[in-house]
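User: Hi! I'm working on a homework problem where we have to compare a predicted structure to a textbook description. Could you give me the structure for the chain below?
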Amino acid sequence: MGTIDTELILRELVYNIAEELNYTDAKIDVQEITTGGANYSSALYEATISEANKDKLEFFAKVAVVGEVARSQFPLALFDIERFAYNDLLKKYAKIQDKNNLHDDNRLVWPKFYGCNPKLYEETIVLENLAKKGYVTYNRLKSIDWAYASKAVESLAKFHALSIAYGEENPEEYAKLMAKMKFKSSGVQEMGNAYEKLAGMALAVTKDENKERLKKYIEKKGSLVNMTKFYQPTGIKLLTHGDYRPSNLMHKTKEDGTIHVIPVDFQTITAGSPIIDLIYLIFTGSDEEFRRQHYEQLVEHYYQELTRALRNLNLDIDKHYPRKNFDNDLKDFLPFGLILGVFTLPVITVEAENAPTLQGEDGINSMVISKTSNLYPERLNGIVNDYIRWGIL
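Assistant: Happy to help. Predicted structure tokens:
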């Protein structure tokens, strides 16, 4: 596969969008942007369409830059999933919210979708530019705080509740979709080599007094195969976000001082347990101090918000996710946070100049970065301390 001119690909799509929206003499501007090491699968751009006597349109766009090797190794069709989300799923969710006459404060919000290019190796998606409305991404090198985490959990609960509502309204259609979106473990073997290296990196920075505990846990229970079992739950299944971390959310502070959080990345939607998303947010976005102060509080807040979100959709939490089931799932899924930390923290905490790319022949192995940040040992040891305190290590 040769080098892809991502800007040219995007310009062609934006030109087509301009035509569709009757901008006949439009000026199109495209500027590449960076997320400072937070994005690995796409080239990111801001684009505008402007014309005299017409509203200026401001876009955020992603053009795929994942190479052949990484695509063959990854168990999810990232770009197909995101196109499905905007072209189909989120439209259904919008209708569900409209049908239930949800007030703005009770609605899940996502970026407006303008268009896409589905061609292999040129996959592109164009959305409204939320940054122009004052939304920003959270600093991935800082721990989330309660003000942000509580609102991120509220948006997550709404996302999960809409999946449950979809299943209630269209059970046969939903069942087919859930079967289609089931996590496929076939590609996991390709990731095994990378995971072994990441486990070695984790052990190398673990404090001496805890090193043997973590080593034994990884050998007995912390394998990649065991990690995939969390994606095949026997309990409640719904459409999960799959990568619910601060880098995939945008937020802004409203006039009343509260924070509004919008999910903006839907490449990893999967049929699975809602606990996966909750754990993802907690263990990729927070440090040990936050979890000591707020872990139980945040878990409780999620369940109460899911209860409220379901009630707003005229659904009963006791029917769909009784508290006993939630508590049992939380206990069963808690070890996932430790394995997740081993697998993701090197990349999540990497300095921008050392961030990996998925374009080359190394594929998934490029995620095993050669130079980790000073934050990595701190975050990793914080998770190890948590799991010792909780009696899992």
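For your comparison, note the following. Residues 3 and 378 are 38 Å apart (CA to CA). Strands lie at 27-33, 42-50, 57-64, 113-117, 124-128, 238-240, 249-253, 259-263, 270-272. Good luck with the assignment!
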